Amino acid sequence: MIEERSLNFLEEIIEEDLRNGKNDGRVLTRFPPEPNGYLHIGHAKSICLNFGIAQKYNGKTNLRFDDTNPSTEETEYVDSIRDDIHWLGFEWDKELYSSNYFDELYQFAVTLIGKGLAYVDDSTAEEIAAAKGTPTEPGTPTPNRSRSIEENLQLFDEMKAGKYPDGAKVLRAKIDLESPNMHLRDPLMYRIKHAHHHRTGNKWCVYPMYDFAHGQSDATEEITHSICTLEFIPHRPLYEWFINELNVFPSKQYEFARLNMNFTVMSKRKLLQLVNEKYVTGWDDPRMPTISGLRRRGYTPLSIRNFCERIGVAKRENLIDLSLLEFCIREDLNKTALRRMVVMDPVKVVITNYLKDQSEVMHGENNPEAEDGGGSREIPFSAEIWIEREDFMEEAPKKFFRLSPGLMVRLKNAYIVKCDNFFKDENGRVSEIHCTYITESKSGSDTSGIHVKGTIHWVSVKHAKNAEVRLYDRLFRVEDPSNEDGDFKEYINPDSLSVIKNAFIEPDLLNARPELGYQFIRKGYFNLDSDSTSDNLIFNRTVTLKDAWAKEVKKG
User: Fold this and answer.
1) DSSP structure class, residue 318
2) Which pLDDT score, from 0 to 100, does residue 2 have?
């Protein structure tokens, strides 16, 4: 019996609201990404939280794009965000945009001006910042704070009409220059930006600031629970001030700890640097913490949802170990991934007592962990096979249970073989190993009575196909690159990608599909990369079979 987890603090709030009949028993959340980059694993946590809570309480979730900054936003990002949410397994109720509300937000601003609660300021950004004071010293009014309502209305209309250049004027809320909360010291509401918007074109040259657009968009949609990350706690009084002064639907903001994970960065700005400066191949590079990068690497929606469930919902910032995410994908793929044999560093084995022109079909399980048994596939076998170079030693130590002169090993799904001899090339490198096979030892019908401790994988030379294998590892070599001295890019792991151009794969992998996971036996979990063609198969390592980094940390 699975023990039911306790409610997180947001679920407790919602259940209390439902008991009290608040919001007529409705639960409506929203996921409000800015379309200025691709979503990352931190956004996945927010997606799972917003959509998951709504699902649990028979509510709904809106997808609202925060498109208030036209100079950084692109349709490409809108499309990628949609794809990521669908891929994670969620459906939104309404697809909305902050730009849907530009007319309404403008009228809200006019209302606040009319109440004497907003004014047009000609001061520069530096002058405004200086006049706001410090956390220990009150702010001082700029010369424009005392403008009349009529003058402010006229100037704001002229700003909208395009009369002034970028940066010439801003609209500010008139709240409290002595407030201990810096966000209440006459925050900006609108700025001038002559830029083409990906949805509204050139209709607007004034755009609302997030702190103004956010709460009013929530109110317009009648969002019942506006879930944000902890950095928005000091913004909440401003969120509530706008809602109260405009007398609109009283959406409530609640904050949770964002996802911080070691051995990576979560800042969109830093991720954009990695892309633009070519440290990675793009937003979907399998080393990136983006949802599209994880997807391309072979992570599954279920593994990410399980990860988000395991880390829970907290009120304090913490650093989550990447090993937990890797554990979740191993746990999922162990049950679903198809087992296949791939040799990445090959050396040839000749089975001298097997007829040279003979071949036969062996049968291997697709997945012994699968509930339905997983079925099986055919594996061709012949007198010459490839094995991993590491599976042979000229002089084997006591507990080496693979191939060495005089030692026996089982070939996975095939026969027991005994190493008789080996040969080297002119460089002293082992080039060929000669073995004999035990004819009565065929897997599934072994009558030889011989028991060996080791089993190795192999691929028939005659039937082998070629593929490129990309071995991905952690993008950074330190736990928290953002907190190290100097440029965070100095800490990129030089071994985050190793490419094997000519690995030998068993023929069945010619049927590989990107949506299926594969366990390369004894090597790790892999998936087919989107760059693959029928003539050039490329496989990405999703994760190793075991947590190799845990050992490295212990050594350190």
Assistant:
1) -
2) 43
Residues 198 and 201: their CA atoms lie apart, in Å, by: 6
Alpha-carbon torsion (422, 424, 430, 432), positive or negative = negative
- H-state helical runs in 284-441: 291-297, 301-311, 322-336
Per the structure block, which two tokens stand in for 62? Answer: 């809106």
Question: Measured between alpha carbons, how far is 180 from 151 in angstroms, rounded to an integer?
Answer: 30
Residue 387 pairs with which residues in a beta bridge? Answer: 347
DSSP code, position 154: H
Q: Is residue 425 helix, strand or coil?
A: coil
DSSP string, 445-493: S--S----S-EE--EETTT-EEEEEEEE--SBSSS-GGGSSS-GGGGB-
Element (H, E) at 171: strand 170-173
Contact between residue 40 and residue 260 where contact means Cβ atoms under 8 Å apart: no
Interval 255-271: pLDDT, tens: 999 999 999 999 999 99
Active-site amino acid positions = 34, 258, 268
**Which amino acid is located at 438 in the chain?**
I
Handedness of CA 39, 41, 45, 51 (dihedral sign): positive
Look at 2-16, 137-151, 296-310, 452-466 and tell me which has the smallest mean pLDDT: 2-16
What would the pLDDT profile of 432-479 be if each residue is shown by its tens digit?
A: 999 999 999 999 999 999 999 999 999 999 999 999 999 999 999 999
- Dihedral sign (CA 54, 58, 63, 66): negative
- Residue 4: pLDDT over 80: no
Could you give the CA distance from residue 226 to residue 224 in angstroms, rounded to a whole number? 7
Q: What are phi and psi of 499, to 5 degrees?
A: -115, 125
Secondary structure (3-state) at 306 = helix
- Strands 188-192 and 170-173 come out as antiparallel
Q: Are 494 and 277 in contact (CB under 8 A)?
A: no
Q: Which two tokens stand for residue 21?
A: 């009949």
Place of tokens 């692109």: 74
Q: Are 121 and 170 in contact (CB under 8 A)?
A: yes
What is the reported pLDDT for 316?
A: 85
The span from the CA of 105 to the CA of 67, in Å, is 13
Instruction: Please state whether the predicted TM-score (pTM) of the whole model is above 0.85.
Output: yes
In the predicted model, is pLDDT for residue 553 greater than 60? no
| E strands in 88-229 | 95-97, 118-121, 170-173, 188-192, 206-208, 225-229
pLDDT tens column, 289-330:
999 999 999 999 999 999 999 998 988 888 899 999 999 999
Handedness of CA 503, 509, 511, 516 (dihedral sign): negative
